[in-house]
Amino acid sequence: MSLTPEMDASIDDQAARAAWLYYVGGLTQDQIASEMGLSRQRAQRLVSRAVAAGLIHVRLNHHLARCVELEAALRARFGLVRCRVMPGLGPARDPVRSIAPAAAEEMERVLAESGSRVIALGTGRALRGMVDALSPVEAPQHRLVSLLGNIALDGSASYFEVIMRLAEKVRAPHYPMPVPVLVDTVEENRTLQSLTAVRKVRGLAQAADVTFVGVGQMSEDAPLLTDGFLTPDELHEIQRVGAAGEVAGWIYDRQGRYLDLALNARLTGVRVEIATPERPVIGIAAGEAKIMALRAALTSGIINGLVTDEPTAAGILAG
Amino acid sequence: MSLTPEMDASIDDQAARAAWLYYVGGLTQDQIASEMGLSRQRAQRLVSRAVAAGLIHVRLNHHLARCVELEAALRARFGLVRCRVMPGLGPARDPVRSIAPAAAEEMERVLAESGSRVIALGTGRALRGMVDALSPVEAPQHRLVSLLGNIALDGSASYFEVIMRLAEKVRAPHYPMPVPVLVDTVEENRTLQSLTAVRKVRGLAQAADVTFVGVGQMSEDAPLLTDGFLTPDELHEIQRVGAAGEVAGWIYDRQGRYLDLALNARLTGVRVEIATPERPVIGIAAGEAKIMALRAALTSGIINGLVTDEPTAAGILAG
DNA sequence: GGTGCGCGTGAGTATTTGCCCATACGGCGA
DNA sequence: TCGCCGTATGGGCAAATACTCACGCGCACC
């Protein structure tokens, strides 16, 4: 993916400088080109490179009245300790884009604490977006721990791993869950759970001071299905017994009560229990499809913090 | 300046939403127009309004190698507790633009502390830029105090007042210095200093946990001259006795030793004494003209923290 | 009630930007 | 050594954006 680090650094430096001149200095790409002694096209490419590489962060410093209202309503109805509602980006546009900056701010808020905290993390696209939107901060006083593994059934590790990226950005000690998300048999699971390494990570995760999780829907586009953890038949069976959503792979019904499924015995991750104000669990999720799953998790208190977007917030409250 | 608050809010809301769709969502202004049901021009105006009003903040998440080097060199040479060097924006462009975001970050760093702090502030364009670039944060645990008044000799209050704006953004209790910067006679000054209100503010400022100041040059374009605190003759006389710069109106020589001037007896503000690591004084300043003033202030330790830009940093180190 | 002023609006236009393509450069294998 | 391929570069062009101008509306003052 990259050339020599030296080369990369120099090009990123150039990109950063061009983007700085463009966004902070307000120069045109023409002016940047002559300032830095390159062609306009190159200047343009550097700026877009900087944006693509996430070197540039844009933040909105204004609380939209509508979003503030929705936040207040959600806080009141579900007794949330944290709640952020960001403007929607219109249909057919990835809501992760909208909520990632706000989620990153929530994370930064935790990271800014000077005392040492244990921060537990789920997986998923929304959390990945959060980490990408995060500014690098040195916060080595905290410990990061995974609620679940990042190895899929087929052994691939692509399942939107979050903890390693985050640890890299904040330079904090981190404890990934060194196991597959799901194993084939109850016995395998028991063996894994007995490993000291696994037991220590589980213990840390269960004692987390704050937890960030995604929330999965159980409709036909369920992440558990698209990521290959369930077959369509299994999904339909679980839907039939009333599945409404899942957090870290653990499936619950419309009241947010965890279901007693055969699947559970093969899940290796930590189940998030009812959140308390002292040990909040922040849900990071948005999208039409997730409304029911979110309402359920909020109802029972699996999550007591929420970062979502405007249409999703409205949908949750409409129910 | 503004219409009804209601009207303002609604228009800012629109602007913020348009800017969100533009910068975060990546829509074109055409798409924003149809999404929000307005004309393309209106969408464009809303976006530029949001930028002008400071609703949109852009930050660069990359440490340019050259800037990092300069920071390290400045830290080492002057024993600084904080140091930020931002890329220059080229000549003939306001360096405040470049350093304001970094200065705002330094301020946010202090504001994020959970313990209660006393934050003292000077005045000037650079500090004003810092406050404008600051994200609104609730930090009512801190107290903000002014080092000097904001009333000029002619009674006008325009001298880049900082503390009120800052207090508005962070909702912290604030203590402006309720006097002119400079008075006509020593007796007037004595009278003012004896007022309880003034004594309390002075006491608070002198005990500040952290201080943010601009740094003024004493060349022909001295802020003290352009703001009408000195006549050209006075300036030349002070230059003759070796003035190199000024902090909060107090003038020092090339070694950063405060000068014993007749003017001093008419200055009402608090003189910033040698900074300590426990009670840092952060200088916010950049520009060719300020190099000598900065080097002097750094040499004697009037300031032990610095936010500046690349050419200024290089100039300071070159001496 | 008229008149002037200021603000916001939309149309038109100049500038800027993003994208595509032809081309040049450099590494690598035949 | 030659030729191929992948990558980066600059020119050109269409789209997008910013600016200017003239108009219209509302408000206040006369």
UniProtKB/TrEMBL annotation, chains A, B:
Domain (HTH marR-type) ranges: 20-59
InterPro entries to which the protein is assigned, alphabetical: HTH_MarR-typ, NagB/RpiA_transferase-like, SorC_transcr_regulators, Sugar-bd_dom_put, WH-like_DNA-bd_sf
Biological source species: Ancylobacter rudongensis
GO molecular function list: carbohydrate binding; DNA binding; DNA-binding transcription factor activity
Keyword field: DNA-binding, Transcription, Transcription regulation
Protein name per UniProt: DNA-binding transcriptional regulator LsrR, DeoR family
Family assignment from sequence similarity: Belongs to the SorC transcriptional regulatory family.
Chain ranges of the Sugar-binding domain: 63-318
